[in-house]
Amino acid sequence: MNILIAGIPGQTENYEKALSLCHVSFETSLCPAKSASFDKLLLPGGGDIHPSWFGQTDQGSDALDAELDRMQFALLHRFLRSGKPVLGICRGMQIINVYFGGTLIQNLPTADRHRYKGRDQIHPADNMPGSLLFQFYQGSCLINSAHHQGCSTIGRALAVTQTARDGVIEALEHENGRILGVQWHPERTALLSETAPVADGSLLIHYFAEHL
Q: What residues act catalytically?
């Protein structure tokens, strides 16, 4: 198994450490030409997507990077066209939603409950029965947030499968069963001790690496 992390080398350390636990091969790159050499795509977290991608003007987006947007959307397109599995984390989930025609809230009304403040915010989330998240974490779990934006209109063929108690969308699954997005950071919780109260992200990371 060979996984491409669609990010900037040197900025994806936690994702690399989490995948290392699965004993799979991986590389961090933004080169679309490499897509044919990889079996799966991981879209990592990062700054905000430029709002022009979902038909809006800038209304509070941060750390915009037009070239990163372009490269990640190009890689996602290539992997989807080939029918390969994709996992999107935080920004990565938002990339997936926008790719399928969805939109984002550029600054959540409850952003202070979700944004990074020297550490992740921890809060409960509810999982939709029948979803992958429900399979792993049952009806509810604690998750870690580090974002100020969120999904608004949901893209084609995507279903909301996890929400925070304030209504913020925390996970999306595609109807084909091969595309998953989570707004929180399983790559971080996968590296915590098993006694930590937050959801064990290693369950999602291993599922992506071995089964998705």
A: 90, 185, 187
pLDDT for position 40:
98
In this prediction the pTM is: 0.97
Contact at 8 Å (CB) between 40 and 208?
Answer: yes
User: Between the CA of residue 175 and those of 9, 32, 77, 161, 178, what are the distances in Å?
Assistant: 31, 25, 17, 11, 8
Q: Give the confidence band of 206 by pLDDT, cuts at 50, 70, 90.
A: very high
User: Please, what's the largest Cα pairwise distance for the chain?
Assistant: 44
**CB of 203 within 8 A of CB of 136?**
yes
Q: What mean pLDDT, rounded, does the chain reach?
A: 96
Query: 203 to each of 22, 157, 189, 206, 209, how far by Cα in Å?
Result: 10, 24, 10, 5, 10
| Exposed/middle/buried for residue 109 (C-beta within 10 Å: 0-12, 13-18, 19+) | exposed
Distance of CA 203 to the CA centre of its chain: 15
**Cβ proximity of 208 and 180 under 8 Å:** yes
- Answer for the pair 123, 164: CB distance below 8 angstroms, yes or no: yes
Q: What is the CA radius of gyration of the chain?
A: 16
Instruction: Show the tokens assigned to 120.
Output: 């992740």
Interval 113-154: pLDDT, tens: 999 999 999 999 999 999 999 999 999 999 999 999 999 999
